[in-house]
Specification:
The structure holds 2 protein chains of 2 kinds.
Chain A (H helix, E strand, L loop, with lengths): L4 E3 L2 E4 L5 E6 L6 E7 L6 E7 L2 E5 L6 E5 L5 E5 L8 E8 L5 E2 L3 E5 L1
Parallel strand pairs in A: 2-11
Antiparallel strand pairs in A: 1-3, 3-8, 4-5, 4-9, 5-6, 7-8, 9-10, 9-11
Chain B lengths: L3 E4 L2 E5 L4 E7 L6 E6 L5 E7 L5 E4 L2 E6 L4 E6 L8 E8 L7 E3 L3 E6 L1
Parallel strand pairs in B: 2-11
Antiparallel strand pairs in B: 1-3, 3-8, 4-5, 4-9, 6-7, 7-8, 9-10, 9-11
Classes of the chains: A mainly beta, B mainly beta.
Chain lengths: ~110, ~110
């Protein structure tokens, strides 16, 4: 069975640019969550979507937005990139309780 | 707001020894997760603990949950080098949004 997939794997952007990260959940999972993991820290919750509805938002600025599509895949968008946005962005899908994490997208902002 | 504290944050130990990682959290929750992360990699689910007194074991790792004390432990028995990784506990906020709060992680280095 395919796990959670994310694209791209790595990305380098410059300050002020915009980025879109993509996630495909495990087949049958309707919930997708996004986390940011800065080097040396635990992941921090950004968003959760269920059946295309935003169910939760973490303490991130409005530059961060997301959406979920009818096939339950999801996009995370970040506008006006800052150096501090450099991190590993993790997507997780869930059937009920356990969240299964994808391989992540490593974003570097120069 | 829910806070999750792990200790120790760094642990260097020799193969064959036993040790315990502690995870304390600040508000009521009945769901706690342990994840493993290798350098540059994503998170691998180790254990899901869903009730007070839950104990789960896989190989040399055993996790337990005491919801009354708001404490979980991850015990390592007779450590081997392959267990070197960062271990995170994460606690479910029990809200509608599936939000889980992670600890800072315990970086475990096992010396051969």
């Amino acid at each position: 069975d395919a796990g959670v997939t994310q694209s791209p794997t790595h990305l380098i952007k410059t300050r002020g640019q915009h980025v879109t990260l993509r996630c495909s959940p495990i087949s049958g999972h309707k919930s997708v969550s996004w986390y940011q993991q800065v080097l040396g820290q635990g992941p921090q919750f950004i968003f959760q979507y269920y059946e295309k509805e935003e169910r939760g938002r973490g303490n991130f600025p409005d530059r961060f937005s997301a959406r979920q599509f009818p096939n339950y895949s999801s996009e995370l968008n970040v506008n006006a990139l800052l150096l501090g946005d450099s991190a590993l962005y993790l997507c997780a899908s869930s059937p009920h309780t356990t969240q299964y994490f994808g391989p992540g997208t490593r974003l570097t902002v120069l | 707001e829910l806070k999750v504290e792990q200790n120790p944050l760094f642990l260097s130990m020799q193969e064959g020894k036993n040790y315990t990682i502690y995870c304390n959290y600040s508000t009521t929750s009945d769901r706690l997760y342990w994840y493993r992360q290798d350098p540059g990699k994503s998170l691998e689910s180790l254990f899901v603990l869903l009730s007070n007194g839950a104990v789960k074991q896989e190989g040399r790792l055993m996790a337990s949950l005491d919801t009354k004390a708001r404490l979980s432990t991850l015990h390592i028995t007779a450590a081997v080098h392959d267990l070197s990784a960062t271990y995170f506990c994460a606690v479910d906020t029990m809200n509608r949004d599936d939000k889980i709060i992670f600890g800072k992680g315990t970086r475990l280095h096992i010396l051969p």
